[in-house]
Amino acid sequence: MAQFYRPQRGRSKPAEQPIKRNASVSGLDHQGRGIVRESKGVRFIAGALTDELIDFQPQGKWQGKLIQVKQPAPARVTPDCPYYEQCGGCDLQHLALSRQRQHKQQVVSELFAKFAGHDIDCWQAPLTGADWRYRRRLRLACHWDSKRRNFKLGLRQANSKAIVEISDCLISDTALTRLLQPLRKFLPQLDLIAQLGHVELMTTNSCCLLLRLKNPVSAKDHRQLLEFSQNYGVDVWLHCGETAPQPLLAGQELPRYASWQTEVSFQPGDFLQAHGELSPLMVEQALAWLAPGPGDHVLELYAGSGNFSLPIARSGARVTAIEGVPSMVERLTANASRANLSIAAQHADLEQPWQHYDWGTIEFNKVFLDPARAGAAHAISEVAQRQPERVVYVSCAADTLARDARHLFAAGYRLKRAQIVDMFPQTHHIECLTWFERET
Ligand SMILES: C[S@@+](CC[C@H](N)C(=O)[O-])C[C@H]1O[C@@H](n2cnc3c(N)ncnc32)[C@H](O)[C@@H]1O
Fold first, then answer.
1. How many CB atoms lie within 10 A of CB 138?
2. Which residue's CA lies nearest to atom 12 of ligand 1?
3. Residue 90's Cα: distance from chain center in Å?
4. Ligand 1 atom 8: residue of nearest CA
5. Has keyword Transferase (predicted)?
6. Which residue, judged by its Cα, is nearest atom 6 of ligand 1?
7. Cβ(324) to ligand 1 under 6 A?
8. What is the DSSP letter of 135?
9. HSE of 274 in the Cβ direction (CA atoms, 13 Å)?
10. From CA 364, how far away is CA 68, in angstroms rounded?
11. How far is CA 181 from the centre of its chain?
12. Which of 32, 38, 240, 342 could pair with 428 as two cysteines, CB 3.0-4.6 Å apart?
């Protein structure tokens, strides 16, 4: 039967709204977007700064696209990155670095006031490191168009699946970015190109390339990958299906990094703190606040492969470390034994009640936690019930930190110190270190 094209009703693109001129920006939201107040509410405009006069195109109900900055703020700087307009990554590049840090501190203060009913009066100066070339891990999106034999490798555009084909990324270590062009040429020559999910690059003591695949690679690909690995001095790892990542070369050593007088081995694909220079400084600062020592029993939650656990154990404190990924628990145990440290590393889902676990009834006097962005909604209530004398909390999401802090305040803790750790310069992402102390 013949088929005819019929436009689908109600699915056409909404008509563009007229440009609004000379709007004034009253502040920045928690994602670093300019806020414009209108009679019917607020609009969020990416790229606009506080006290600027701008023209913008309204988009949807709450957003707008910046068309022109008529009167720039004194804090505006010219973004260095040639991909700033397209790439979704460094969305605060147009704001001077010192103001980025002030903004991040203000966001945490506002969220504490809103969600925890608490004003922060104990800020320490931000902990800072390199503001460019700091990233030691780069995840790249890719797309293979088999008909046109066209391969795209790059970073995702803001709010889109489109790939921006960068030839450099100014926040990434050059040990990673030097591989971008060679990979673009090399990967389409392989059979695996049709099943390549994404590509990850990381650099610590060695440089690693991790390929996310559905199936194992052919013998021909194996040979070519080996050649690439030797030519470019990069260890290749393959992550096929549901099995753990495997090195291309059997017996390949795990990569490792230094963390405050200890060494931590990790498997490509594991969590790795983004900023190579700042991570050990953050560990040192967390140790200074936690002040572990002989006689202390520290319960560490969300421990990963031991970035904080090993230094805490080195102080002489007894450490029980909890992590949700079983293979990371194995690596933490191996890292501890290599360093001659005794750590009781346990696997657990910290979203579950602790009564399910053997370690759930142990006694401890200090807690250190470093959860993922989701925070520690359940774990913090378990901590608060047990009333340890001190809690040091590293967060990469200010909203969940403020939500979790509310439990600690309600359980009789006070905030003794807070500090922005500038782990993600040029972006709106916030890392914050906090120290809570039981009142009595
Ligand atoms: C931000 S990372 C911190 C890792 C480590 N502290 C470090 O510095 O490398 C958070 C860790 O929490 C773990 N995690 C996330 N959700 C979890 C859960 N529900 N239960 C236990 N661990 C979890 C992740 O696997 C990850 O290793």
1. 21
2. 302
3. 13
4. 307
5. yes
6. 303
7. yes
8. B
9. 21
10. 57
11. 25
12. 32
Tokens of 55: 């023209």
Does ligand 1 come within 6 angstroms of the Cβ of 370?
yes
pLDDT (tens digit, 9 = 90+) per residue, 211-248?
Answer: 999 999 999 999 999 999 999 999 999 999 888 999 99
- Distance between Cα 7 and ligand 1 center (Å): 48
- CA–centroid distance, 321 to ligand 1, in Å, is 11
326 lines ligand 1 (CB under 6 A): no
Decide the pairing of beta strands 297-301 and 366-369. Answer: parallel
What number is the ipTM of this complex?
0.99
User: Would you please indicate which residues are annotated as catalytic (active-site) residues?
Assistant: 396
Q: Ligand 1 atom 1: the closest Cα is on which residue?
A: 372
pLDDT tens profile 253-287: 999 999 988 999 999 999 999 999 999 999 999 99
Residues 263, 256 contacting (CB under 8 angstroms) = yes
Global confidence as pTM:
0.94
DSSP line for 140-198? EEEEEETTTTEEEEEEEBTTSSPEE--S--TTB-HHHHTTHHHHHHHGGGSGGGGGEEE
Query: Cα separation of 298 and 277, whole Å?
Result: 26
Residue 158 tokens read as 């803001």
Work out which ligand 1 atom sits closest to the CA atom of 309. Answer: 6
Domains located in the chain, CATH noted: 20-76 (2.40.50.140), 106-130+257-438 (3.40.50.150), 137-203+206-247 (2.40.50.1070)
Q: pLDDT tier at 5 (50, 70, 90 boundaries)?
A: very low
Q: Is the CB of 306 within 6 Å of ligand 1?
A: no
Contact yes or no for 219/189 (Cβ under 8 A): no
Q: How far away, in angstroms, is 41 Cα from ligand 1 center?
A: 38
Nearest to 300 by CA among 346, 341, 265: 346
Q: Does residue 404's CB lie within 6 angstroms of at least one atom of ligand 1? A: no
Q: C-alpha angle 135/140/145, rounded to 5°?
A: 165
Pocket test for ligand 1, best of 259, 270, 271 (most atoms within 8 A of CB): 271
What is the C-alpha separation between 361 and 167, in angstroms, rounded?
53
pLDDT at 194 over 90: yes
